[in-house]
Specification:
about 280 residues, alpha/beta, about 25% helix
Length: about 280
């Protein structure tokens, strides 16, 4: 891609576009999924793992990962938002018919296509499953290109497991090996109790043909990456999603700097070979 074409693509992504909420669901008690359609012009097509800057009019703008299907309609966006602050609370409260400003897509993706022919190990903790869902959906849309697709999900309680309906359908059609675990089970919970590292440690993997995809709290990603390294999966085939405060989305403001990286441009998805030395520095 020439420098001119890159500049045009960046300028197009940096333009805020109005989108309308056409569907609003609540996967868990503290998350909301908004389905958005463009009012006039759509943003560019996204890749699994990328994010958008979402603007709640009169409140502010934040980076939110895309949780929808990258193989579906290119003009429709899905974002799963956890209510943790003023902007995320305002976005979460936007009802059907309401307007949201959208810029993007930004950042690197999971690049699941580069793992074709091999095994995928996907580990998501809590709301970290949201940016991983597009990866799983992309892999399932091209299921014949991959060998095993292993998904490990974890949450505080069974009621906090994201996309429970998706997970059950993945198991029903046999396309995914699913392992679910929670910290605090309900009396009816039939599954595992504990951290996501436990089912991960029990997997028998072919390290030469395995690629890992991790998203969740940084300690969780570190422990999962170390578990994969112990199974001889190379660090450059372990991908993690790093999160810092992203404000401009176009590598202009520097708020998302992590060592030499500007995560809105160089991330959020990086290999563990890149991430490991940065995650080892306190308060970096």
């Amino acid at each position: 891609m020439s420098a001119d074409v890159q500049a045009q693509a960046a300028a197009a992504s940096d333009t805020m576009l109005p989108y309308r909420v056409v569907r609003r669901t609540a996967p868990t008690h503290d998350t909301v999924t908004l389905t958005l359609e463009p009012v006039r012009r759509a943003a560019g097509r996204f890749r699994a793992g990328q994010f958008m800057m979402l603007y709640s009019f009169g409140v502010g703008e934040i980076a939110i990962s895309i949780s929808g299907d990258p193989t579906g309609r290119g003009d429709v966006l899905e974002h799963t938002i956890r209510k943790v602050g003023a902007v995320s609370g305002a976005l979460s409260s936007t009802g059907v018919g309401g307007l949201v400003g959208v810029r993007g897509p930004f950042g690197t993706g999971w690049d699941v296509e580069s793992a074709a022919g091999g095994d995928l190990v996907v580990v998501g903790g809590g709301v970290g499953l949201a940016p991983l869902r597009p990866l799983v959906l992309a892999a399932l849309a091209d299921r014949g290109s991959y060998r095993r697709v292993v998904v490990i999900t974890g949450a505080r309680t069974p009621a906090d497991l994201l996309f429970a309906g998706d997970q059950e359908s993945w198991v029903r059609d046999g396309s995914v090996e699913l392992h679910r675990t929670v910290d605090h089970p309900s009396p009816q919970w039939p599954g595992r109790v504990g951290f996501v590292t436990e089912p991960l440690a029990q997997l028998h993997l072919d390290p030469a043909r395995t690629t890992g995809f991790l998203c969740g709290p940084e300690p969780m990603m570190r422990f999962c990456a170390q578990a994969l390294l112990r199974k001889n999966v190379p660090g450059d085939r372990i991908r993690v999603s790093l999160e810092r405060t992203m404000e401009c989305g176009v590598a202009r403001c520097g708020h998302c700097q992590l060592g030499p990286l500007l995560l809105c441009r160089d991330g959020p998805i990086v290999t563990y070979t890149v991430a490991e030395p940065l995650l080892g520095v306190r308060e970096l």
